[in-house]
Amino acid sequence: MREFSDGAIEVIRKNLHGWFMRNKRCFPWRKRRTTYRVWVAEIMLQQTRTDQAQPYFERFMRAFPSLKKLAEASQQDVLKQWEGLGYYGRARKLHQAAQIIRATPGGRFPTEYEKILALPGVGPYTAAAIASLAMNLPHAVVDGNVIRVLSRLCMVEERLDTATGKKIFQHLADQLLDRNNPGLHNESMMELGALCCLPRRPLCESCPLNTCCEAYRNHGVYDYPKRNPRAKVPHIQVGAGVLKDGHGRILIAQRREGDMLGGLWEFPGGKREQGETIRECIRRELMEELGVQTDIQDHLITIHHAYSHFTMELHAYCGRIVSGKPRPLECADLAWGGPNDLMAYPMSKADDRIRQHLRQHE
Ligand code: SF4
Questions:
Q1: Which of 100, 178, 194, 250 is the most exposed place for a label (fewest CB within 10 A)?
Q2: What is the pTM of this model?
């Protein structure tokens, strides 16, 4: 297994920490640092960029300033504050974890790595980040930024998605970790990856680690980290019905817990099957989901949206129920409301765009 020499470790730590103190960015979660704030930030940052997460973090902290307030909130309120941030399973698990913590004797956030790791929504990276940043416990973080830095520093040939790759990166990160300052050290590594050791144009000339970097010395920085060839992302077509009643109210459906976007609300519909037109798809979906016959009329809007594992074209059509009373057959709940009333319900970005369109054209 690849080892750093003692001399190299000393130089890397010293240069890295000095660089971080001069260059670190100012984030709301770096101010008034508490375990609760670190935890919420780390969950938000799992799949969201720092610039996108900042306004959400501040809004979330205003709504739920403490672990107690979060545990006492309804899931719908938590999802509403998370609305637009995506990967809603994170919000549901954060809420669930807050309730679990409050139900334990003392009701306080755990202070041991294994117990932090056992919380819903917390994997090895997040547990190490919380343990080191909030409690100064000696656990090295290994995220995408850290992997990029390590893979270039040591010219690591293994990919992270292999068992050997995972072991190598964790071993290298553990070796470099400054056990006297684990929080500072982890943040420095992540910040270097985010600001200096960039994926496409690393700023090697001004990098504080360039004297110790093998890839730089060997003119090979663009060859690392080693990656899998990208798989083609599937594309799907989805139809959604905007069903109005005689009072101008619109029907929305709540997605079932355990489904993708579970707990969020949407304009009912689903994926187009082969050979179907979009209108036929919406009619079929509304019969399966709500048990109603519908007349699908004008096209309202088409939205293009990319998720991490597929891209989607969502076609929304106006319509009305011609027979039957809607029942939540394949959804958790149903609600009727005018375009403004619908703003109270948490929705995904794509459905929110249909909702905004309805408000603008009311
Ligand atoms: S010298 Fe370049 S490749 Fe090496 S760690 Fe620094 S920025 Fe990354």
A1: 100
A2: 0.86
